[in-house]
Amino acid sequence: MLDPIMEDKMSSSSSGWSSGKKSGGVGGQWLYDEATDGGDPLGLAGVHSSIYASLRLNTPREAGGFSDFPFRPSAGGDARRYPVHGELLRYVRDFCDVFGLMDTVRLNTMAMRVAMGPPRRDGSLQWTVRSKRDGEEVETEEVFDAVVVATGHYSQPRLPRIDGMDRWRRRQLHSHSYRVPNSFHGEVVVIVGCSASGAELALELRRLAKEVHLSAKSTGEIMASAMSRILSRYEDDNLHLRLQVEHLCEDGRVVFDDGSCVVADTIVYCPGYNYSFPFLETDGKVTVDDNRFGPLCEHVFPPALAPSLSFVGIPAKVVLPRFVEAQARWVAQVLSGRRTLPAPEEMLRAVEEYNGGREAAGLPKWRTHDLLLDLELCDEYGERTCGFPRMEQWKKELLWSSVSNMRDDIESFRDGYHDSDLVTDGLRLHGWIPPATQPPQEEAD
Ligand SMILES: Cc1cc2nc3c(=O)[nH]c(=O)nc-3n(C[C@H](O)[C@H](O)[C@H](O)COP(=O)(O)OP(=O)(O)OC[C@H]3O[C@@H](n4cnc5c(N)ncnc54)[C@H](O)[C@@H]3O)c2cc1C
């Protein structure tokens, strides 16, 4: 998705713009792309979207949407609480149309290089942006006062390191490159990783595949995950739990940690994604280290380069697009001079304190930007950074019950749910369901 406010907040020697990369439309991840990285697990072909054909949202639409533009069902679209992906694409397009954003979007344009230019006389930073339009040979170079990077973080596949991966001759792909199940018909498939993508793909593929083996780091991990109920439902059939893959053999064997093995046709890797900003040059002032990107104050401003460089959409496991709306508002307030940032040293100290706190809580470095779907923390974040209103209680309850239902049964949570009175009242008050009909009054004699 594009940062909705970036364009009119960037004063520059050139006019502000947002880029739609290679794609011919807005929507980011939600612009479903049949093309894949051709089974190349490193995703070198540079396809942006990781969305597969049958994907339905796992977040309830009534709690999603920007604060001033609810995610209502489209005419003739998918009105369900957890609609198919195209419904969210339609929402993003409508948002851009309604708020007149398309005039500032340059579609089919890739930012090739974003680099610090020589500072101005007053010491303020400026940024040189080199971009290229699809089909054109020449690159354009422009200078800006500020750059907001909102390029998403679900496009650069992360891969496990498994002995024999380079020698295994059969099909290996990352979930990033998965689109449709047809080619898995009758196959023996190993899925590595059992969080949301691994679990959902296992359920989709087991319908066509001969066998699906879901490999998790430990049995404990899988039993605590959304898959426990599913495994007990299908393990007598063709879905099997396996330990971590220990090594791969040239003859097609996949050997697991407990010594058991299967001869597989395909391995699908679902360990998630890495942060990657190949276009960005900051003289080492912002770097990725074991998937910790920074230093970034509140996951947005690099102390040494703020406010002229900022990042929207870095955190994972947050409510979208609400969370990025708060971040975008904060950036807009700072760039327009309505809010000031603390001094760089203070921001750096805050980053160190945050990282130290997370490490003390036992969270590994690679989970620095994982906000654990902590709705209270997200509320405090929005309030603290930009005065963003707290989320209504009924929406929180809807999200909590959605997550809990998903953990309980990832196969059925989208269609089998029951709302509490608080949620029902909230839905009614905000026009998601019709007003309650009053029981007919008894006629007085
Ligand atoms: C399989 C999957 C399922 C998901 N399911 C859900 C869900 O159910 N609910 C939910 O809320 N979220 C879900 N998400 C998360 C989803 O990614 C976010 O909701 C949303 O897409 C994040 O928006 P974004 O704008 O930050 O990034 P993106 O949507 O990734 O958009 C980034 C944009 O930046 C552009 N770009 C990148 N590099 C450049 C460049 N160099 N130059 C110019 N442009 C560039 C891209 O083309 C794209 O337009 C899912 C993600 C995946 C991968």
Q: Any overview of this molecule?
A:
This protein has 445 residues and is an alpha/beta fold. The chain has two domains: 9-156 and 273-386, FAD/NAD(P)-binding domain (3-Layer(bba) Sandwich), CATH 3.50.50; 159-269, FAD/NAD(P)-binding domain, CATH 3.50.50.60. The chain has ten helices and 18 strands. It has helices spanning 6-9, 85-98, 196-205, 219-224, 228-234, 322-335, 344-360, 375-386, 393-408, 421-429; strands spanning 18-19, 105-106, 109-116, 127-133, 139-144, 147-149, 171-174, 188-192, 211-215, 239-242, 245-248, 253-256, 261-263, 266-269, 280-281, 287-289, 292-294, 309-311. Strands 7-14-8-9-10 form a five-stranded parallel sheet, with helices on one face. The protein has a four-stranded mixed sheet with strand order 5-4-3-15, with no helix packed on it. Strand 1, helix 2 and strand 2 (105-106) form a beta-alpha-beta unit. Helix 6 packs parallel to helix 8 and helix 9 (393-408) packs across helix 10. The radius of gyration is 24 Å and the shape is globular. The termini are far apart. 35% of the residues are buried. It binds flavin-adenine dinucleotide (FAD). Flavin-adenine dinucleotide binds at residues 1, 19-21, 23, 28-29, 48, 50-51, 57-59, 110-111, 150-152, 154, 197, 279, 313, 320, 324.
